[in-house]
Amino acid sequence: MTMRTFRPYDLDELRLLPPSPCDWLPEDHLTYFLVDLVEALNL
Fold it and tell me: Into how many domains does the chain fold?
């Protein structure tokens, strides 16, 4: 039987992902086009 190793973790970690996708998406990402498109729709 092989022994598994796990990544270390911190119980005091506040978040797992950045608070905003803008922090990790490049400026030319398709997401920004879609956000602009949805905002322009007359719903």
Answer: 1
pLDDT at residue 6 tops 90:
no
Q: Give the burial class of 27: count Cβ atoms within 10 A of its Cβ; 0-12 exposed, 13-18 middle, 19 or more buried.
A: exposed
C-alpha 23/C-alpha 19 separation (Å) is 8
**Are 21 and 31 within 8 A, CB to CB?**
yes
DSSP secondary structure letter of residue 17? S
Evaluate whether residue 6 is within a structural domain: no
pLDDT range class, residue 9, cuts 50, 70, 90: confident
Q: What is the length of the chain?
A: 43
Instruction: Return mean pLDDT, the chain.
Output: 85
